Amino acid sequence: MLGVRGFLAPTAYTTFFYTLKVMPFGDATAIDAINPIFAAIFGRIFLKEQFGIYHLISVVLGFVGVVMLVKPTIVFGGDVSPYPVYVPLLGVGAAVGIGATT
After folding, report:
1. Has residue 73 got a pLDDT over 70?
2. Of 96, 93, 89, nearest to 38 (Cα)?
3. Disulfide-capable partner of 69 in 30, 33, 61, 97 (CB 3.0 to 4.6 Å)?
4. What percent of the chain has pLDDT over 90?
5. pLDDT (tens digit, 9 = 90+) per residue, 9-26?
6. With contact defined as beta carbons under 8 Å apart, do 43 and 102 qualify?
7. pLDDT confidence of 76, banded at 50, 70, 90?
8. CA-CA distance, 99 to 21, in Å (whole number)?
């Protein structure tokens, strides 16, 4: 497990720094703001921590808040984003990785 964490953490942070380079800073940091959400979800799955209705509501509201901040074109429509479609997905992957190693 320690080896997986040792591989996942540098990979996640490198991916996050790449998204900072390619995407606007505000969008990249807003996407990175979902890593505590994934930390809570992984804590429930792997550590069997309590996860009540209030936790579920806060996770859903946090995710909706991040989606409203980033305003992805697939949800809100509008102009095509100036960066490739895989870059925000890399940001989400980085947030998942950082949340898993927290």
Report:
1. no
2. 96
3. 30
4. 37
5. 999 999 999 999 988 888
6. no
7. low
8. 21
**Distance of alpha carbon 40 from alpha carbon 83, whole angstroms:** 30
Q: What is the rounded distance in angstroms from the CA atom of residue 31 to the CA atom of residue 19?
A: 10
* Amino acid letter, residue 51: F
Q: Which residue has 């901040």 as its token pair?
A: 69
Q: In sequence order, what DSSP letters do the residues of 5-71 get, joined into one string?
A: HHHHHHHHHHHHHHHHHHS-HHHHHHHHTTHHHHHHHHHHHHH-----HHHHHHHHHHHHHHHHHH-
Backbone torsions φ then ψ of 76, nearest 5 degrees: -100, -10
